[in-house]
Amino acid sequence: RKWWYIGNTVAIPRLGIPSLNMQDAAGGFRTNFPEVTGTVTVWPSLLAMGATWDPDLVLEFGKALGQEFKGKGANAILGPSVNVHRVARNGRNFE
């Protein structure tokens, strides 16, 4: 969909390679454009998800996040927050 993605690559149909429709993800599908404003879920931070120590809950979260992105045509999630939080002054630890 026009303007919905942060980054794209072109498909190569003769090789069976689809386009990549990349979108930011840390808190949910980024709403940079008016067409998607009001259509996304704001998810809990992944640091909070990890703090639950509940693999089943995190799995359900991952499935729901993936479904939302897939439903909007994105097939690559950028910045899924695989961070090692060790900066005492915060930085981007909230993601």
Structure description:
With 95 residues, the protein is an alpha+beta fold. The chain contains 2 helices and 3 strands; from the N terminus they run E-E-H-H-E. It has helices at residues 46-51, 55-71, and strands at 7-8, 21-24, 76-78. A 3-stranded mixed β-sheet has the order 1-2-3, with no helix packed on it. The longest helix has 17 residues, at 55-71. The chain starts with 6 loop residues before the first strand and ends in a 17-residue tail after the last strand.
Annotate the secondary structure layout:
Elements: E1 7-8, E2 21-24, H1 46-51, H2 55-71, E3 76-78
Parallel strand pairs: 2-3
Antiparallel strand pairs: 1-2
What is the general shape?
globular
Through-space gap between termini: 26 Å
Provide the structure class. alpha+beta
Low-confidence segments, given as residue ranges, are: none
Q: What spatial order of strands do you see in the largest sheet?
A: 1-2-3
DSSP strand count: 3
- Give, in order, the helices and strands: EEHHE
By DSSP (H or I, 4+ residues per run), the number of helices equals 2
Give Rg in angstroms: 15 Å
Helix content: 10-25%
State the major sheet: 3 strands, mixed
Our estimate of the beta-strand percent is 5-15%
Overall pLDDT metric = 82
